[in-house]
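To the team - iron/sulfur cluster complex, inputs and output below.
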Amino acid sequence: MKCSEAVGYPLPPPDEGALDDREGLFGFAHSYETSSRYDGPGVRIVLFLSGCLLRCTYCHNPDTWHLKDGTYVSIEQVTNRLADFAPALRSMGGGLTISGGEPMVQLAFTRRILSAAKDMGLHTAIETSGFLGDRADEKFLSVLDLVLLDIKSGDPETYRKATSRDLAPTLRFAERLAAMGKPVWVRFTLVPGLTDDPANVEEIAKFVAPMKNVEWVEIQPFHQLGAFKWKAMGLDYKEANTPSPTTELHKRVIEQFRAAGCRAR
Ligand code: SF4
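Output:
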């Protein structure tokens, strides 16, 4: 059964500005989802941590942007919950994926969870924009089996328009992962009128194609399932009238990646 639940009972949280993440013994977790088949190999549990520095105009989870959107929990609360699922996940060849928000906002907390998952014999992954990739030290990367790396655009101007941040840190992180041979699935959200320009797609395809560690490029079609959250939060939702990509557009983009030599789906 697929479910989305809070991670634990709330502890009294510190001020957001005063959060000390060096030890990673406590952190802000938003929710988790069981039985995902899309966020890494096998059947996964996906843990959504809160906190993100990007502001994607099409974000499906604006309710995870701030640390305090999550519940302040201890590492034991998270790992005890994970241990409940570990035997089933192992038997289904799956594991843990940490998403968000952005998992590298709370780097030490994320590392401790990944490390505990490895100790339970689970495959580990994070889904990340790579914007904070410079923070990922060897200790962090050593407990990570797979990176689901969102490259949200290939053209720096389009990237900024879509996310309000710079593209360069993401590309730097991708190059570092390639140099160390860390398995990566690149993810690209196809948003008509924003990220679908052939030249924008081509930039990512050309960048990724020579990287032997990139096992898949996954095209994620934009949808409106997160729209209600923007409305409920009183946020200005720029993609209110953006349609999902047509089948033709989706096919064109997959073909563009394949023509460049990527394994795309
Ligand atoms: S990086 Fe992810 S969580 Fe952050 S704003 Fe973009 S889509 Fe939302």
